[in-house]
Amino acid sequence: MRYTALEKLEIIRLVEQSVLPARKVLDRIGIPRSTFHRWYDLYRNGGAEALTDRPSRPNRTWNRIAYDVRAQVIDLALEAPELSPREIAVRFTDEQGYFVSESSVYRLLKTHDLITSPQFIVIKAAENFHTKTTATNQLWQTDFTYLKVIGWGWFYLSTILDDTGVRARSGHSKTPTATALR
Fold first, then answer.
1. From the CA atom positions of the chain, what is the Rg in Å?
2. 74-124, pLDDT tens digit by residue?
3. Which of 36, 46, 74, 172 is least buried, going by the fewest C-beta atoms within 10 A?
4. What is the per-residue pLDDT for 164?
5. CB 129 within 8 Å of CB 141
6. How would you list the strands of the sheet with 168-173, edge to edge?
7. CA 92 to chain centre
8. Is residue 159 part of a domain?
9. CA–CA separation, 141 and 14 (whole Å)
């Protein structure tokens, strides 16, 4: 239970003015002795104002980028809009001597809507191969797999298929450098 500064002061005065020992008074009102002594030390050193609760969180987060540094990063991004967040982070570290990570620069630019879309076109895989095969030996497919055979060891299994499906070749080897096509 949280006590206000006024309630803490009343408890301190109650214990001070009581004829009973402090331990018995604190046991009856249900306040741990360590809590009371902490309050009493605060009261003796700082008066009644010291009994008010303070927020437990610090005023500043230890790894937060300062506002002036943020402004400098934004200015650099506006001066050179062609740079990626990684390049901005590297240039800022080189020029200012203050390290800012690439991810921090990216988040900062994203909050200010300064992230541009990539200038290249992403090519996606097609459903079918663009050039259909009409005869054998025009297109081959390969697969190499490293298999463990219990009791025998590790083996490479290679499969080579003609795209028309007419010919199939396979091989295996005990050593990684050997090629065995049969």
1. 37
2. 999 999 999 999 999 999 999 999 999 999 999 999 999 998 766 677 778
3. 46
4. 75
5. no
6. 140-149, 153-162, 168-173
7. 22
8. yes
9. 90
Tell me which residue has tokens 């506002």: 67
Hey, what long-range contacts does 131-135 have (CB within 8 A, 24 or more apart)?
133/163, 133/164, 135/164
Tokens of 131: 């050039």
* Domain assignment of residue 120, yes or no: no
CA distance 182 to 178: 13
Q: List, in order, residues 6 or more apart from 50 with CB less than 8 Å away.
A: 42, 43
Is 76 in contact with 105 (CB distance < 8 Å)?
A: no
Residue 56 belongs to a domain: no
- The residue assigned the tokens 């541009």 is 116
HSE at residue 117, side-chain half, CA atoms within 13 A, is 3
Last residue of a domain, one of 91, 111, 131: 111
Identify the CA nearest to 81 among candidates 57, 125, 114. 114
Domain range for 39: 5-51
- State how far the Cα of 67 lies from the Cα of 83, in Å rounded to an integer: 21
The answer to whether the pTM exceeds 0.85 is no
